[in-house]
Amino acid sequence: MYGLFEDEDDIFMGSPKSKLMDVVFNANNDVVRHELQNFIDRTAALELLIAEKFGEDIDKEVRNYMISNREEVDNYAKSLYIELMGAILSKSE
Fold it and tell me: Record's Gene3D superfamilies (predicted)?
């Protein structure tokens, strides 16, 4: 597992996570706020859907899923970094 500031793809000029952080801190503030709000709204909706299925103890279910499917979760997270970065960059031009 990597720490917050460690970059597993450093030799390739950064990971999707580090590139997203660069974009977030350098892009138009209004665009970043808008895209982060969209991301939070989507996350809230997904958590509510999961709560309907598993009850109120979704933290345990999510933790178990993350442990059981670590590689898949990591790969999907990279896709989300890229998707959010693309949304911010496309509206910052």
Answer: HP0242-like domain
